[in-house]
Specification:
heterodimer, A: about 550 residues, alpha/beta, Rossmann fold, 7-stranded mixed beta sheet, 5-stranded parallel beta sheet, 21 helices, 18 strands, about 15% strand, globular, B: about 160 residues, Pyruvate-ferredoxin Oxidoreductase, domain 3, 5 helices, about 35% helix
Chain lengths: ~550, ~160
């Protein structure tokens, strides 16, 4: 059930909810993505309010599906968190060359302050490097309006567009007034155009030139008509800002003139020059990288950025903006630490990691709830870098460590993460076998738990929980040359699991252990979804 | 009017976000500009959770600056030190100690009882509170919520 009434005209919505509603009003024909905080609710909400959405195995596949749809003259969306764009960037960097014939919006959610991410990377760097136009909303209303504008821009210039969100814009709620301007559904069809879409060098070189020409045209359009706003107040202080920082600025320095940038790539260069000429002191206020600062400095404009490295990290807020403007370099107040997150009571991962501790394993880990096992009291994970890395890193250790240490290495990966990018790791394991063998454990809790219980190709259910083909991890492993495959319940069969891992570590063979026990938080929902699907199947017979 | 700031805080799973949703929806329906901020994600796993609600004629940042919250409503005593920097000098701190928790129909209704306590500091119509509680909770919780809200008001 959606958390709001999609037929209302004025509502209090989160940025993610506002995006979903706007997608409905823009007649988006297909929306796909991979869950990742803070982006996950967009597709779920879109499905709940009547749109068509699906989860992909990972962001790269999702982006390819959305791009193919746009090649077929449809309107498509792909969603992901910032690190997901690393996985999908291979698609983005050439999709800007080919352009699109329908329209395609990439909704990418950054996480300044790392509320729930392994790094603090700034998607604006990707936009510039891939030459992809980018919008940055400051609140839910702008998120709602900019989805529409992003599609209009994508259709007008024939290019994919990024909507860059941040945690605070995704998850804060503010008031949204629904627009009467709705976009008519596109009519998908295929028109052959080999030179535009087959990016071999002969066709790609002219495409690169077309892309640069589009960018020049867009930069001029952005200065003249883009979603930017020059707010003139006192000319003593002028602030250039974008995204959530705009609201912190307005509160911290209500008298300052502000150039609020809504489309930050390509930069509205003429507008920036005009604003800079009108004010005395000129300051850029932005989260993450000094991205606007460097872009504006490169224009030869004298501008202040966040010189003090303490402001390079973490989210901004009203007090930090006050400090930056006051050039305050004194140490910031240290917030009192709250209670850290922990594996839930009854979480099946607790038993799996207890086994690994008992057997003194070197644990190559991965991304999910189970990463919390790295924290005390378990302290049972030795490394975690990126999605799917558990298997590759574990194999690397096995190849180089002295035999007695190599024999202790285990790769541990969740079910959704295994689908996302663990499968190729298994293929590597069968192909380049370490002399000591290797042991991979899939912690199968039958859901994408950390991001809020989303389905994936291994659950047997689609995004809307209707039935789907269920991937068989063991069969994939066997096909990749993994000779030993076991399934065990780490909670109900603790001793058996311990014996299986111990035996596997002693052999110089390749072993996959599927530690299967459902997420304790999702269990009730999983049972209800499966029951509903069984009843529906019964009705149809 | 200047912006009113109410911070809700507790541990993951105790209804912090839901309580702030109720309060935010209430002031929205009463015609104020309103913003609400919290962080989702890993905080679901039993860690500290806080949610900021700000309302007034026009609200800019969704996050309450330190020292500017007129109200801090905590659902667990041990979350007071983590959040008290938000509280304005002379601001009001509400915690489960302020209500008779032994009378609650269920532990889960603590968030609604805390809203009941909070309601005594505002002259918003009680039927409005009731309406929003019914709108944001499933029908099976309505009766228990009604009792919990009253217990909070009386506490």
């Amino acid at each position: 059930m959606p958390s709001f009434d999609p037929s209302a005209k004025k509502m209090l919505l989160s940025g993610n909810e506002a995006i979903s509603l706007s997608m409905l009003h823009c007649n988006v024909q297909i929306a796909t993505g991979y869950p990742g905080t803070p982006s996950s609710e967009i597709l779920e909400t879109y499905s709940e309010i009547g749109g068509y959405a699906q989860w992909a195995p990972n962001e790269k596949v999702a982006a390819e599906v959305a791009l193919g749809a746009a090649f077929g003259h449809a309107r498509s969306v792909v969603t992901m968190k910032h690190v997901g764009l690393n996985v999908a960037s291979d698609v983005l960097y050439t999709a800007t060359y080919s352009g699109v014939q329908g329209s395609m919006v990439w909704i990418v959610a950054d996480d300044p302050g790392q509320a729930s991410s392994q790094n603090e990377q700034d998607t604006r760097n990707h936009a510039k490097a891939a030459v992809c136009p980018m919008f940055e909303p400051s609140n839910s209303q702008e998120a709602y309006d900019m989805v529409r504008l992003a599609f209009q821009t994508s259709e007008r210039f024939g290019i994919p567009v990024i909507l860059r969100m941040t945690t605070r814009v995704d998850h804060s709620k503010s008031i949204v007034q629904v627009s009467d301007e709705k976009l008519e559904a596109l009519k998908p069809h295929f028109v052959r155009d080999i030179a535009s879409r087959v990016m071999v060098p002969g066709y790609s070189k002219p495409a690169a030139k077309r892309l640069r020409a589009k960018m020049e045209e867009m930069a001029a359009w952005n200065s003249a008509e883009g979603p930017n706003r020059m707010e003139m107040r006192s000319t003593d202080l002028g602030i250039i800002t974008s995204g959530i920082s705009y609201h912190h600025v307005r509160e911290a320095a209500p008298e300052a003139s502000v150039l609020k940038i809504g489309m930050s790539y390509p930069l509205p260069v003429n507008l920036i020059r005009e604003f800079a000429a009108k004010v005395g002191r000129l300051v850029v206020i932005e989260e993450n990288d000094p991205w606007l600062f460097e872009g504006i400095s490169a224009l030869g404009i004298k501008v202040e950025g966040k010189y003090d490295p303490i402001y390079r990290f973490g989210e901004l807020d009203v007090n930090r903006v006050r400090r930056i403007l006051a050039k305050d370099q004194s140490p910031e107040p240290v917030p009192v630490k709250g209670r850290p997150p922990a594996l839930c009571q009854g979480c099946p991962h607790r038993e799996s990691f207890a086994v690994l501790n008992e057997l003194n394993c070197i644990v190559s880990g991965d991304i999910g709830c189970y990463t919390l096992a790295a924290l005390p009291p378990l302290s049972a994970m030795d490394m975690m870098i990126d999605m799917g890395a558990a298997i590759g890193m574990g194999l690397g250790l096995r190849h180089v460590l002295p035999r007695e240490e190599a024999k202790r290495v285990v790769s541990v990966i969740g079910d959704s993460t295994f689908i996302h990018s663990g499968i190729t790791g298994l293929v590597e394991m069968g192909y380049n076998r370490p002399s000591t063998g290797h042991v991979v454990i899939i912690l199968d809790n039958s859901i994408t738990a950390m991001t809020g219980q989303q389905e994936h190709p291994g659950t047997g259910r689609k995004l809307d929980h209707s039935p789907a083909y269920k991937v068989n991890y063991g069969e994939i492993a066997k096909a990749a040359g993994i000779e030993n495959v076991f399934e065990v319940n780490p909670v109900k069969e603790y001793d058996k699991m311990k014996a299986l891992v111990k035996e596997a570590l002693e052999k110089d063979e390749l072993t996959l252990i599927i530690a299967k026990s459902p997420c304790i938080l999702a269990l009730k929902s999983i049972l209800a979804w499966d029951k509903a699907n069984r009843e529906k199947a019964g009705d149809q017979k | 009017m200047s912006t009113m700031n109410v911070k809700f805080a507790g541990l993951g799973g105790t209804g912090v976000v839901k309580a702030s949703d109720v309060f935010a929806e209430l002031v929205f329906e009463l015609g104020y500009d309103v913003k609400k901020a919290e962080v989702h994600g890993m905080s679901q796993r039993g860690g500290s959770v806080a949610s900021d609600v700000r309302y007034g004629e026009k609200v800019e940042s969704p996050m309450i600056p330190d020292g500017e919250a007129q109200f801090l409503v905590v659902f667990a005593e041990d979350q007071i030190p983590v959040n008290e920097a938000a509280l304005k000098v002379g601001g009001t701190l509400l915690s489960p100690k302020d209500i008779d928790v032994s009378k609650l129909p269920s532990e889960k209704a603590l968030n609604v009882a805390m809203l009941g306590k909070l309601s005594t500091f505002f002259d918003f119509p009680l039927e409005k509170w009731e309406k929003i509680l019914q709108k944001l909770f499933a029908p099976k919780f309505h009766e228990g919520n009604s009792i919990a809200f009253k217990i909070g008001r009386e506490g």
